[in-house]
Design goal:
With about 240 residues, the chain is of the alpha/beta class. It is built from 10 helices and 8 strands. It has one domain: Alpha-Beta Barrel (TIM Barrel). The model has no long low-confidence stretch (mean pLDDT about 95). The structure holds cytidine-5'-monophosphate (C5P). The site of cytidine-5'-monophosphate (C5P) has 19 residues, from strand 8 and helix 9.
Length: about 240
């Protein structure tokens, strides 16, 4: 049995309330290491909620996908950088100067927080992508956004599992590959570019971000343990 610290599942705790989230996290303490907090719980609980989850012993991945002018992003990163957060997301569509401002603010704070750059949302299929980026292929955008993340000192990128054959070969030695869109079969909810945990790991994922397949299971603890066991079989 792999040490609890070695498994690669990050739970996206996308629940309605802080109390619901804390009680679920308490029930998953035995197996869970990394917890992703998104905009709803951050809006309701702010940094105090982040601190409580950290004090419970979890590594917090704060997924705010910051996308704004460089000065605004830099100021936010400066605030988060020394608060014991494991990783924070910025959106690579903000461009090189924004990414550089983020990494420079993070470095200046001398903390240990990592920055991950979002490439293209896993909920966008090619039709939805074309609507907002007419004339640009998603493959080209994925490559150039990952390259910007590498050039501007991101620690990792967020991409879909089906982007891994392209991105892990080009950037896997420099950037951690953090992968949502994890699904078995067709039950993709609003996710469009998906793969199973096994396929995502085989294609080069370093971490799998999983929300509803665990949150909506009859027993989230069992669903998490099963998913960890499935990933262990590959190592
Ligand atoms: O419930 P599900 O497993 O689809 O959750 C995936 C999580 O990963 C969500 O919290 C979502 O915000 C996040 N995410 C994503 N695609 C990205 C970046 C983040 O699904 N490109």
């Amino acid at each position: 049995m792999m040490n609890k610290k070695d498994h690669k599942i990050i739970l996206a705790v996308d629940l309605a309330s802080q109390s619901e989230a804390e009680s679920l996290l308490d029930s998953l303490r035995e197996d869970l290491v990394h917890v992703k907090i998104g905009p709803r719980l951050f809006a309701s609980g702010g940094i105090s909620f982040v601190n409580r989850v950290t004090e419970m012993g979890f590594k917090v991945f704060l997924d705010l996908k910051l996308h704004d002018i460089p000065n605004t992003v830099s100021s936010a990163v400066d605030y988060f950088a020394s608060r014991g957060i494991w990783a924070l997301t910025v959106h690579s569509a903000g461009g090189a100067t924004m990414l550089q401002a983020a990494s420079s603010a993070n470095r200046s704070a001398l903390g240990e927080m990592m920055l991950f750059g979002v490439t293209v949302l896993t909920s966008l299929d090619s039709g939805a992508w074309e609507e907002v980026n007419p004339g640009c292929s998603m493959q080209q955008a994925l490559w150039s956004r990952a390259a910007l993340c590498a050039a501007n000192e991101m620690d990792g990128i967020i991409c879909s599992p089906i982007d891994l054959p392209l991105l892990a070969s080009g950037f896997g030695n420099r950037l951690k590959m953090v992968v949502p869109g994890i699904r078995d079969g067709e039950s993709g909810d609003d996710q469009r570019r998906t793969a199973s945990p096994e396929d995502a790991l085989k294609m080069g994922a370093d971490y799998l971000v999983v929300g509803r397949p665990i949150l909506k299971a009859a027993s989230p603890a069992k669903a998490l343990a099963d998913m960890i066991a499935r990933t262990e079989r590959l190592s």
